[in-house]
Design a protein that fits this description.
The protein has 15 helices and 17 strands. The protein has about 425 residues and is an alpha/beta fold.
Length: about 425
């Protein structure tokens, strides 16, 4: 049978992995797909690198636009990244009737609604399994495997760089800055790690998962995004003493008035499986009505794990290549005319529990003042830890874990607590999720 011809845009880490895995497992992949899948042309500015990786067996060009307009190319794989030229190339490929496979979470989080609409209009598919959690097949699980379920919430460790940093901070008691340097030395963090450590990368991914789970357009611009740069080693230590671990989570949850969509450092009970995901690994926990909790774990990045997801999309597109577009799996799980306009809740309306660390003068009556303010704002205390001050110290730390309340209640209480004369500095606030279904 005639092979499916693939045009590969970008032969970097993932592109090279895709070429290697596709060639190494060619026979097995052909048996699964029903016809050969071959990379017929590669576009990369570094032509010499492309020749070196491919061994000279395919056409090489430095003109990506020539690939997306090539009549011999059936599927375009976009592995360039970013919002700019990648968007132009993807839309041009769709305009020319090409199916698209991409690992570009940033592109889909920001422009996914436009791209999916263009693809639907042209009757082509956009595969993006590799855009979220690398080699973990979470897109297919949410979009197809859980299709009988009403999904209630998703919580995920979906950025390996930050998970590595938090694991090292906990294990070694080091500061954020120290571990970041080590992560960069080991190659877990980029020279400019901003998207990772500020939570943007995780927000791109949870925005995509939220759309799949709840049948809404992709709404990255409405997500609350908070990274780990302000996290201190002492908070990790105190959390541990209270039976919790801190992870950067992407969270999306269905509520009566809308959908929560947020990324931030989160305390999780240490007994939860997801709390024990260490190093650069990823994990996504999905709560649904029929199946209950399901956990998806694996490598969230890397050449071959991500290539695994890219090639899975290539096989899917190959299988569905000749199928009536109306009978294909919808890009965002729900039929395009059934997408919901349920709003994303503002952070002030989010419901969660809290970890509060207060530096206060060590004198009578301070704790009573704090608990009174919390009670006045309808916030109840779940647990408390007070550090014994050292000899000669006139200050101490009080750690409070609250029960679930609305964020605006916590905001009001914190503002009043910070106004107490005994307070030294600001209240350190972290959110806490039990993740128990």
């Amino acid at each position: 049978m005639k092979p499916i011809n693939v045009g590969l845009l970008g032969i970097g880490t993932v592109g090279g992995g895709t070429f290697t895995v596709l060639k190494r497992n060619e026979a097995e992949i052909t048996r699964r797909a029903g016809r050969p899948i071959r990379i017929s042309v590669v576009a990369d500015k570094n032509v010499e690198l492309a020749k070196q990786v491919t061994g000279g067996g395919v056409k090489i060009t430095d003109d990506a636009f020539a690939v997306v307009t090539d009549p011999e190319v059936d599927i375009v794989v976009e592995l360039i990244g970013g919002y700019g030229i990648a968007k132009e190339l993807v839309l041009k490929a769709i305009e020319n009737g090409k199916h698209v496979v991409t690992a570009n979470k940033a592109l889909l989080a920001v422009h996914g609604t436009e791209i999916f609409a263009a693809a639907r209009k042209k009757g082509v598919m956009v595969g993006f399994e590799a855009a979220v959690a690398g080699g973990i097949t979470i897109i297919k699980a949410v979009r197809e495997g859980l299709t009988a379920n009403r999904i209630e919430w998703i919580a995920g460790i979906i950025n390996g760089t930050t998970n590595f940093i938090l694991s090292e901070m906990r294990d070694k008691g080091l500061s954020f800055a120290e571990v970041l340097k080590e992560a960069q030395r080991l190659g877990y963090a980029e020279a400019d790690p901003t998207f990772d450590i500020e939570g943007v990368d995780a927000a791109h991914k949870i925005s995509i998962l939220s759309a799949l789970a709840f049948g809404t357009p992709v709404q990255f611009d409405k997500a609350h995004v908070e990274g780990i740069t302000k996290l201190e080693a002492e908070d990790i230590k105190y959390a541990e003493q209270l039976g919790y671990r801190i992870k950067l989570l992407g969270i999306t949850r269905r509520k009566a008035k809308g959908i929560e969509l947020r990324v931030h450092p989160t305390l999780i009970p240490a007994k939860r499986l997801i709390a024990n995901v260490e190093g650069a690994m990823n994990a996504v926990l999905v709560q649904a009505d029929a199946v209950g909790s399901t956990l998806y774990y694996g490598k969230g990045a890397g050449a071959e794990p991500t290539a695994s997801a890219v090639i899975a999309d290539l096989v899917d597109v190959t299988r569905m290549h000749t199928v009536d577009p109306e009978n294909r799996v919808p890009h965002l799980a729900f039929q395009h005319d059934q997408l919901s306009d349920v709003p994303i809740l503002p952070l002030a309306e989010v419901e969660t529990a809290y970890y509060l660390r207060l530096r206060v003068e060590d004198k009578p009556g301070v704790l009573a003042d704090i608990t009174r303010i919390l009670a006045d704002n309808a916030i109840s205390i779940d647990a408390m830890l007070q550090r014994e001050p050292g000899e000669g110290e006139g200050e101490t730390d009080i750690i409070i874990l609250t029960h679930v309340c609305v964020e605006k209640q916590a905001d009001a209480a914190i503002a009043k607590i910070e106004g107490l004369a005994a307070m030294k500095g600001k209240v350190k606030r972290l959110r806490l999720e039990e993740l128990n279904g």
